[in-house]
Write a structure and sequence with these properties.
Elements (H helix, E strand, L loop, with lengths): L22 H12 L8 E3 H22 L7 H13 L1 H7 L5 H9 L6 H10 L6 E8 L2 E11 L15 H20 L4 H21 L3 H4 L8 E3 H7 L5 H8 L6 E4 L2 H13 L2 H16 L5 H16 L7 H12 L1 H12 L2 H24 L5 H12 L2 E5 L17 H17 L21 E3 L4 E5 L14 H18 L20 H19 L15 H21 L7 E2 L2 E2 H12 L2 E3 L1 H10 L5 H9 L3 H6 L19
Parallel strand pairs: 3-5, 6-8
Antiparallel strand pairs: 1-11, 2-3, 4-5, 7-8, 9-10
Length: about 650
Amino acid sequence: MAGARVGIERDNMDPSVRPCDDFFRYANGAWLDRTPIPADEPVFGAFTEIRDRNWAILHEILEEAASTPAPAGSVQQQVGDYYASGMDEAAVEGAGPAPIAPEIERIDGIADRGELPTLLAGLHAGGARPGFHVFIRPDPKNSGVNLVHLQQAGLGLPDRDYYARADAKSEEIRRAYRAHVARMCELLGEGAADARRSAETVLSLESRLAGASMQRVDQRDPYKTHHKMALRELADEAPGLDWSSYLAALGAPPVDKVNVRQPEFFRELAAVAAQASLEEWKIYLRWHLIRSLAPLLNAAFVDESFAFNGGVLQGIREKHPRWRRVAERVDADLGEALGRLFADRVFRPEAKRRVLGMVDDLRAAFRERISELPWMSEPTRQQAVRKLDAFRVKMGYPDSWRDYSALVIDRGPYVRNAVRAAEFELRRNLAKLGVPVDRDEWNMSPPTVNAYYNPSMNEIVFPAGILQRPFFDVAADDAVNYGSIGVVIGHEMTHGFDDQGSKFDADGNLEDWWRPEDRSAYDARTDLMVKQFEGYEPLPGQHVNGRLTLGENIADLGGVKLALAALRRSRAGLSGADEDGFTAEQRFFLGHAQSWRSQIRDDALRVRLNIDPHSPSRYRVNGPLSNMPEFFAAFGCEDGALARPASERPEIW
């Protein structure tokens, strides 16, 4: 590869395309032409390349742990035995659905509606999500105090709109879903006719819940999902379920208030609890139990789950190999135990120091940009700087590792390890109630190829999994690193000031710290971005949802602008440096675009356009750059197809 030190992959480029007409294609066209999507993937790109390299390392770690004796309760014993239990295919096949018989018997054994709260609590504790989901997080308006949150759930299709849309594709998916539910019921022992009736019952109950579910765009607004109320108020609002009994059965300590994130949904759920027959409830609960645990059972269940969720919904033709599916489960349930072994191998102190230095550069560049904003008043500006300065930064892996010693993991059955892990995680979270919020906790495991901003903690977090090439390489020059991981850092920083993150103050509280005129000026700018992205049509007749993706689109534009400003700030005269045929700023933009190379199946893209708050990768590159005069100047073209009129370019951060 030419320019290995620089980090630009020339072999991936398509020089026949003008950079200012389609920069995504210019930077990645040759790669797009020669790279098919693997049969076991819905999407393939730089993220999946990094993830696959990480999984290869995790595979080695797990194989070693499974084959090496270790003390009971140690990290090595737990990850090794969990992995071994999943890899014992003969035992899993021989057991069939028998390991989940206790849960099936509890469902079948309920005699009246009064037992529903206790039964729901047991199923939720084991990892299933019929009806709704419960979790513990800080109170949005008091970030130092943890609170019980109730979140709508209980649907088997990706989104509420799948149940009501009348277009041919939606109807096709619903038919396939009915057949899928029926086949799963048959695998549990129902006759064909009973299984078809069960599928109709599931569709009927889920359709009622879907009709009362809050739309995804509205769920992005933290004010619309903040409805703290006393349990007695919840009992009045949603009287069909005994909420105190549910929380007691869950194992929660006495609580006075909960946050009901979608009150209309919970009113309908309670009505369904009171109106649906007990037999209908049993069918619905059995379905959501088996739906959640099917990937951990014998091949008949695994294959049927994959056929719908992977094949019908996403167009995937093959499952991941067994070791990979088991490794994913270990990472999901023992993320910091496995991540501790991973971090020791992949993330050197030198790399951590280098990235933290980039964070400092981007923070300084952001502070300068805030100080120069012409549309922001001084009182709001002071609060914005205070919030920026208060950002906490977590890099690579936690300073102290999670203790899993109370979790019992053995070599089988595989599914029982998963249920115990879910129960352990619930107990760990319930223990947060009544004690100060732990601001050192991580919400992603170290091998994860991702990053996040947490508004309640006012923190930016970067797992070791994403701090790999092409996003970060200690051998690459600054221009490429700033264009890739620098943009990711700027992206997460900007989330603290996107259309929703900006509603939280420096202490992580949902608090309006803006002058009204500043918020109006901000909204006018973000409305331009909504209009821009709603003009993109990735599939015929299907456009990007500008409101759903607004926060990510704001962060994408902010990330590129901040990283470029930080690069310029970090080295005097950098814009004139020329290496491997490209100026530093050209290498910056190329590093950015090449880190987003990606291809996606149409079926998977169709689902993501409905539920994903991120725009497709092509628009995550071309969309922000089309608003940046700096980009056009770098490549010497102001008249390219990407160029947008100045009046339509959102100038935000």
